[in-house]
Design goal:
4 helices, single chain, globular, four-stranded parallel β-sheet
Length: 170
Amino acid sequence: MTTLPEPSGTPYRIAFVCLGNICRSPMADVILSELVDSAGLAGKVEVSSCGTGDWHIGQPMDTRAAARLAAEGYDATAHRAQQFDASWLERDLVLAMDARNLADITGVVENDDHVRMFRSFDPLAPAHPGPEDLDVPDPWYGGDDAFVEVSSMVERTCRAILQQLQLLRL
């Protein structure tokens, strides 16, 4: 499993990136934000999300993703989709939800240690993965089961990230 880059300052800023910013990345944003708050790290860690595409800007989270989070006790009502641009790279850690998103991001910057695959922090990820092995599947194309699978994957990975955040001197 990978480790977090050192903080550049306070707050430690993390951004999640997917395609449209209505399913995967906002699910991670909501889950990690609430975990950070519950751990007493509010104000020390800032979490946000965006998408590489522009067709959902300003829209709320996909209703199926929001319903899945609500069923798990999370509040997804405040989310509004945003689009990735180079300014998002100013965060301490930028996490792509799949290999396509990573390619879009790394097309803007090369050899940057703070741009990584989200599932590189997943304790259940393959030991020697290729980029596609670390994809969070896009639940948009599936039914309710796809959102359950993604929610589970995202929550366990966010919990692993939280454990590492708690070890940083923030």
